[in-house]
Amino acid sequence: MFGIRSGTFFLARLILGYIFIMHGWQKLHTNGIDATERAFDSMGIPAPNLAAQYATWVEFVGGILLILGLFLPIVAILLIADMIGAIAYAHWDAGFWAADGGYELPLALIGGLLAVGFAQAGSAAADHYVFRRRRRGAVVD
C-alpha cells in the first residue's frame, strides 16, 4: 500500500497530468494543430509549426507520463519550458491574473511541476520501480 506522502504526490501528479492532457487534447483535436499553429504565428512565436507540435505533444504525452510517474524530472523540464514559452508569448502582456488572460495559471503549473518533478517520486510512481535497481547499486561516498 502507498503511504500518505506517496498518495499525495500521486494526487498532485494526477491533477497536473489531467490539466496538461486536456490542453494537449485541445490543441490536437478541439482546435487542431493547424489552428494552434496559426494562433502561435499571430502571437509572434518563432517557428510556429514546430512550437505548435512541441506544445501539443509535450502537454498530451507529458500529462500521461506525469500521471504514471514516469521520467518525472525530464517531463517536468519539458513542460516547464512549455509554460515559460506560454508566459513569455501568450500571457505576460496581460499581467498576472488568469481572469485577464495573465500568467497566473502557467506560473502555478510551473510550481506544481517543480514540486512533483524533482521530489522523490514515492511508491505510487513508475519511476520508483523503473529506477529501483539503480538506487540499490548506487555507491554512497
TrEMBL record:
Listed Pfam families:
DoxX (PF07681)
Per the UniProt record, which residue ranges are transmembrane? Answer: 6-25, 60-87, 107-126
The name of this protein is DoxX family protein
The record's subcellular location field reads: Cell membrane
The record's keywords, sorted A to Z, are: Cell membrane, Membrane, Transmembrane, Transmembrane helix
Its source organism is Gordonia tangerina
Similarity-based family:
Belongs to the DoxX family.
Taxonomically, the superkingdom here is Bacteria
Keyword Glycoprotein carried by entry: no
Its topology with respect to the membrane?
Multi-pass membrane protein
